[in-house]
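Late entry, written up from scratch paper. The run itself happened at the end of the previous shift, but nothing got recorded in the book at the time, so transcribing now.
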Amino acid sequence: MPHVIHYEDDIFIIDAMVRTLCDASRLEPDPDVLGDAMLSVAKLADASLRRARDLVLMNEHQVDRPESLRLLARTTRSFADAVTALLRPDAPLGRHLASSADELARMASAQRAAASELADALRQATGEDASPEDHVSGDELSELLRL
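Output as recorded:
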């Protein structure tokens, strides 16, 4: 029996890890309490994003592949932005993460490139100038605004 991969579920969980990093980059977490945890979350999210990207790019016949590409591109870009923000010297965790700054900066750079690669794959898969951002069609908007 072939192994079934639940792409959207996996991406959802990875996105939750990335949202944790985003929150840590916007709030003022105590480095002694959460510094090491955020480093671990960043490493886990990076590895998970790489694995999910490889699986999605490798499987061209995946059902809802464009949606997976879009979600993964958005999450990947969010990861890169969050890690970059966490590394700012004025960020609460900046000094705590300084010893791992080179590694984290490489992760952010690699994920930024991966987001571009995913966006290109999305454009090829849909044949249009697709964006990894959420869009609402005119019909959906009309339905939403209908009283």
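The radius of gyration is 17 Å.
(Scratch paper discarded after transcription.)
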